[in-house]
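Team,

Forwarding the record for the chain on the shared tracking sheet. I've put the sequence and predicted structure together so nobody has to dig through attachments.
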Amino acid sequence: MSAENAKRVGIVGAGQLGRMLALAGYPLGLRFVFLDKSKDAPGGQVGEIILGEFGDAEKLRELSEHVDVVTFDVENVPVEAVREGVTRPFRPSVDLLEKAQDRLLEKQLFQSLDIPTPPFAPVDSLADLRAAVEEIGLPAVLKTRRLGYDGKGQRVLREGADLEPAFKELGSVPLILEGFVNFEREVSIIGVRSVSGEARFYPLSENTHREGILRYSVAPFEDRTLQGLAERHIERLLNTFDYAGVLTIEFFVADGKLIANEIAPRVHNSGHWTIEGAVTSQFENHIRAILDLPLGDTTPMGHSAMVNFIGTMPAVEDVLDIPGAHYHSYGKEPRPGRKLGHATLTSQSRTELMMRLEHLLNLAAE
């Protein structure tokens, strides 16, 4: 296939996820064009960026004119602009994207598909909040319904005195109250489905967050019962929306059961371990899925971990000195709380992996 007639993929958002999608797609002979408001976004290192806002239907139409299929690396793409502006196949599902943008719609979707969630209630006033707390109890978590990520837009309520200050801080927008889950661990499953309906699943990963931001993941999390349950839950979502692409569900594990926290209709931070740790990475499988190519093997190759580099990057030579380590820099300007890169670790021994992970976490301390 020559460069002139190569398939072209448009990506709304040129962040690190878009960049990694392009890096996975180039060996397949593909070309990539991004839409982003910043010319310095990571995707600019590997493809052309059309400058514009995600909600600009004309810019989405311009992106469409350059490509064969359109996908995205962020959830905050206004769906009405997509419906108006995108003139090529838009994958994954815009309908599921719409629900993923609103925590209340997301929880109602889980409920409709018999996927367990914490108790929840919409909150539009302080009176609503008091009534919801009366019903759900404390502790509970008050969250904005839209545009919350990496722990932003939420407050834990532990006693009655917390209600009014939390509502005053967050209540200028629609909210949701969720029951607090006293979880044993957090896990996520990544599934992928092609246009033709072929589906594959990665093993669960165990995720550790601090201040709402994912710090590291370890995979596979080996629990046959929970793996089977997670696959059934995610397959229900994939099939309901005739989905094409990668989908992620984050779960709490409590009392040996899965409680759904949220979905991400895209490649996901907790799946970065698949770049070196699985036969086919989540990024390559997403590209295969949206182009209806045969999906790749999702089998893990031993044991893997991923550590985010947040705020600062450790020296590359220190990371690469750890056996089985792979260094990924996104080319971003450092600033506190910003994901600048990550490293993956691979090992045939779980014990050895955890020893190396401890070393890597010391290097990654912000």
